[in-house]
Amino acid sequence: MNTKMKALYIIVTAGFAETMVEFIRSRGATGATIFNARGSNPLQKTILGISIDIEKEIVLSLIESELADKILEEIKQNPDFKSEARAICFTLPVEKTVGLS
Amino acid sequence: MSESKIVEYITIIAAREYKDEIIKLLIELKCHLINVIYAKGSVKESYFKDMLGLVPEEKKVMVSCMVTSDVTDNLFEQLVARLHFNEPNTGIAFAIPVDRLSV
Asked: Which of A35, A62, A98 lies at the smallest CB-CB distance from B79?
């Protein structure tokens, strides 16, 4: 069990998850899990009773604490992830892990 | 759940074939708010496999639930014993402490 890890969650517009995975892997992350989500905001449009949702993808990666902070900062500074990808990222402290060999 | 106990948010990521076994285990251990999400994973591979496009991108399942911290260790031990999470490319699980909970 390792406690010096953080769970890095990155929410991006659908289609940008692969780019994000490549980016975090190039910065030292070993693996990532991608799952689909949908965004919601106050300006959400409804046409004929059908709401138009914004498709999102979430990238989740377990990364060593210091590296997670570094990657988070790099994503924050990278203009490519601010515009189209609309990347939002946050980290959560991981208390216990299993399966990370 | 008693307020004095620490609650943890557990996330288990494994191949989809383990889904039923994981849910069975979580029910056995009386885990709360079990949630199943289908996901896909990608892990770092060697340079040559990368060049050949052989990066393993598997269909995964991500199961999350809430447990009291005293159950977490037992749950992780069971994941190792039953699903061999100690071996590479089987699955991972982690616990995040929950600050507050309304029940």
From this structure: A98
